[in-house]
Design goal:
The chain has 13 helices and seven strands. Strand 6, helix 9 and strand 7 form a beta-alpha-beta unit. About 35% of the residues are buried. The structure holds guanosine-5'-diphosphate and magnesium ion.
Length: about 350
């Protein structure tokens, strides 16, 4: 199963071994990984991508494990879903204990063939982590995982970028994390579809809830937050074009509140489909991936065509204020362009 075609087929047929191999290739952005991704792409598009973000220690991994477990053990066995977990930690190097801790937290999922857990770390380099995560998610999607949980530490822009991948975003808070509420600072609250106050067994839950509700009202003045529009009602009662962020309380260590989280996720899924937001998010996601690829490909191609030192020379002239940034760009681009134009051997038509 060495070739890209064989690997893609094996992944589609459900081989965990092939899946693990492909994920490594894709994560390392190898030519083989790209080729397999190309082959798998048309098989994706149906998974529900669920982002789980929040400050370290709020209980994200514990909660993700419980959520995954609940999807694997529904009241009606017909609703059983295949679940992938992608744990992204941009703050820790690959060898840190955090990922090992995640393994322990997700122990109850071990041995379940319908669950696949993948940890990703950036080794300090943030660039492209969101793109790598997107690629890994595409593999799981094509491989038939219906629920893909993406855990990220909510600490900055890269996490927001990763969270944007998701159809549904859960922001996890915990009481006593300070009344300033960490995640708000990173602008994470704005992307929350479902707000979870985990560690509801700790003191200070009411304060955290009050603070979150206030922040929600301030950041979404257009969205009423008094009670979820869907609470106790049928789907028909859903507002067509606006989702009211829900606040839920959980205790991940004992699974309290996890069923309600699954209920809210299902409700959000229905809202996404009915409101057209599902298509809108798919489009936005693919467009941003496409745009990013176009830009990075063009820049890489252009830079590889420059003579050695040419770029640095332009930068030096810029620093000496001999040219403006705009002029410097033109100086790097135009001569090459006109040289090619006048050289008949490089003309295509
Ligand atoms: N008391 C209590 N502890 C929890 C709860 N959820 C998680 N924890 C504990 O909090 C610590 C951090 O949890 P973890 O899931 O690793 O948080 P993460 O860093 O957000 O992924 C662990 O020791 C968990 O056992 C909860 O609801 N109540
Ligand atoms: Mg974690």
């Amino acid at each position: 199963m060495g070739s890209a075609l064989n690997l893609a087929d094996a992944v589609l047929a459900g081989s965990r071994l092939a899946l693990a191999r492909v994920l490594t290739q894709v994560e390392n952005d190898t030519p083989l990984g790209r080729e397999v991704l190309d082959g798998l792409f048309r098989h994706g598009g149906s998974a529900h991508l669920i982002g789980v973000t929040g400050s370290p220690g709020t209980g994200k991994s514990s909660l993700v494990s419980r959520i995954a477990h609940a999807y694997r053990n529904p009241p009606d066995p017909l609703n059983k879903k295949r679940v992938a977990v992608v744990a992204v930690d941009p703050t820790s190097p690959f060898t840190s204990g955090a990922l090992l801790g995640d393994r322990v937290r997700m122990r109850e999922l071990a041995g379940d063939e319908g669950v696949f857990i993948r940890s990703m770390a950036s080794r300090g380099a943030l660039g492209g982590l969101a793109q790598k995560t997107a690629a890994v998610v595409q593999v799981f999607d094509a491989a038939g995982y219906e629920i893909i949980l993406i855990e990220t530490v909510g600490a900055g822009q890269s996490e927001v970028d990763i969270a944007r991948l998701a159809h549904t975003t859960l922001v996890v808070e915990a009481p006593g994390m300070g009344d300033d509420i960490q995640a708000i600072k990173a602008g994470i609250l704005e992307i929350a579809d479902i707000l979870i106050i985990n560690k509801a067994d700790h003191a200070g839950v009411e304060n955290t809830e009050r603070a979150l509700r206030l922040m929600l009202e301030l950041s979404h003045p257009d969205r009423l937050t008094k009670s979820p529009a869907w609470a106790g009602h049928g789907v028909d009662d859903l507002e067509k074009d606006s989702w009211v962020p829900v606040i839920l309380k959980t205790i991940a260590t004992t699974s309290v509140g996890v069923e309600a989280v699954l209920g809210a996720i299902a409700q959000h899924h229905r809202w996404l489909e009915q409101s057209g937001a599902w298509q809108a998010r798919e489009r936005a996601r693919l467009k941003s991936e496409f745009d990013w690829l176009v830009q990075s490909t063009l820049v890489a191609r252009w830079r590889s065509a420059l003579a050695p030192g040419e770029y640095e020379g332009a930068l030096e002239r810029l620093l000496r204020r001999e040219v403006s940034p705009h002029r410097a760009v033109i100086s790097l681009m135009l001569p090459r362009h006109s040289a090619e134009e006048s050289d008949p051997s490089t003309r295509s038509g």
